[in-house]
Amino acid sequence: QYDRAVQEFLHYLDRNPKQLRYTQERILSLFNEDSGPVILAEVEKYIQQSEAPSFELLQIKANCLKKIGRFEQALLVHAQLEGLKPAHSKNVPSGRELFNFANEMQRAQQLEIAVSAYRELIAKWPRSPYFPAAQVGLAESLVQSGKYSEAIASLNEIIAANRNANYVLRAHLLKGDIYLKLLDQPQQALDVF
């Protein structure tokens, strides 16, 4: 029964691409312990039958993958989404999908995935409006992961290369906090401040 419901929702989305949020909520509301793999299989089957999967279909797939804890695969789909645009939108800034996904993974304490997503955005979209925020997010995720030396190196890159005073200030503050609160090196912290 789940498979038929998912098929109906996806057919509805094909006819009404602006109804992504509604369709996605309805599909995700069907998830339980047993239905997740069935729902994901139906979404994947529908995508395979499409000549060129739409942004909307791939976003549903990414959210299904997240729902069942397959975060690495969700990251790959979010990277795919960067090359597409939603049917209802004219311009989508590059890096948006990866940035939002990385933030979500950081909040969910899926820090390895968050770090990977931030790094991919930084490597592939250096002109993205999300680039400076991704640099800070990367550093914060590294701190949360206990990788202080990597975080400090990342923060040094922000300080050296960024023209946005807000991000440079945040980088200095985070770097000082690492030295003072996490590494117990007050003199290093003082040098930063």
Overview of the molecule:
By secondary structure, the chain is mainly alpha-helical. About 75% of the residues lie in helices and about 0% in strands. The chain is built from eleven helices and no strands. It has helices at about 1-15, 20-30, 35-50, 55-65, 70-80, 95-105, 110-125, 130-145, 150-160, 165-180, 185-190. The model has no long low-confidence stretch (mean pLDDT about 90).
Going by helix content, strand content and strand pairing, the class is mainly alpha
Overall number of strands = 0
Order of helices and strands: HHHHHHHHHHH
Tally of alpha and pi helices: 11
Distance between the termini: 61 Å
Radius of gyration: 20 Å
The largest sheet, given as strand count, sense and whether it forms a barrel, is: none
Q: How much helix is in the residues?
A: over 70%
Strand content: under 5%
Keywords:
mainly alpha, single chain, 193 residues, 11 helices, 74% helix, elongated
Q: TL;DR?
A:
The chain has 193 residues and is an all-alpha fold. The protein has helices at 2-15, 20-29, 35-49, 55-67, 71-81, 96-107, 111-124, 131-144, 148-161, 165-182, 186-192. Helix 8 (131-144) packs antiparallel against helix 9 (148-161).
Topology:
Layout lengths: L1 H14 L4 H10 L5 H15 L5 H13 L3 H11 L14 H12 L3 H14 L6 H14 L3 H14 L3 H18 L3 H7 L1
